[in-house]
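Here is one chain, start to finish.
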Amino acid sequence: MKSLIKKLLAQAVHDATVWSLLDATVLKLARFLERERHRNENAPPPAVIDFAAAMKFISPDLTVRHGVFQGLKIPTNDFGGNVVIPKLLGSYERELHPLLERLRARNYSEIVDIGCAEGYYAVGLARLFPDGKVFAYDTNPAAIRLCRLMTQANRVEHRVVTGAFCDAAALLKLPLTRRALVVSDCEGYEKHLFTPDTVRKLAGHDVLIEVHDLVDITLSSRLRSVFQATHELEVIASVDDLKKAQTYDYPELAAYDLAQRKILLAEYRASAMEWFYFSPRH
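Its structure:
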């Protein structure tokens, strides 16, 4: 191979055609590799975040700083999975904040949170709607324990009832009265939860569903169909983590560069997602 290249180089000195061929292939590749070597040598080190320090800096008292759940008290720093900072900052699922602000005036009689995790929404909504009774469900016992701790930290334990598994039968049995808000984030189980029977029960209530088409691509079309006769649909799209870093502006992030902000604000969705908000037609 080396001898062939040497021969071609020798010919190229006297032959423009051979030189053009070399310039477009071997030499082009060599220049590319050299540029890449210099680029990698001069590239800044990857962003590193000390999450414990970031939590103390952003919210030393573990209280949500901004957004519709501003003031929500977090009872322990062992919560939130890989989205601790967005929840403390108040940027978590900020796409939904305009909707929740609009719904404040409804002061729901009941809130049902299916897939409540550590209670961020269950307790946050209990504070947002102070007259509502909250039913919070999660199949993870550790999540339910954290949810109960959060109800106590925010003094709403008398209004929050926790449970494990909520299927269609459990949803049908709930004592929903004047007007309820049902929030669902159950990783694809919404296909089994929202049946013609449960949707008829919810005909006079509001429903907010995180749609997991990445689990089952037919979910969104099925939900549209089953709610069509009783509810109007509003679709809310998720914002990409990169766009969050570029556009979300919080004073607590002023000390961090753009790469670090991307890590701090990331919600790590596997793909772009949507929420379906269904409001009663009548």
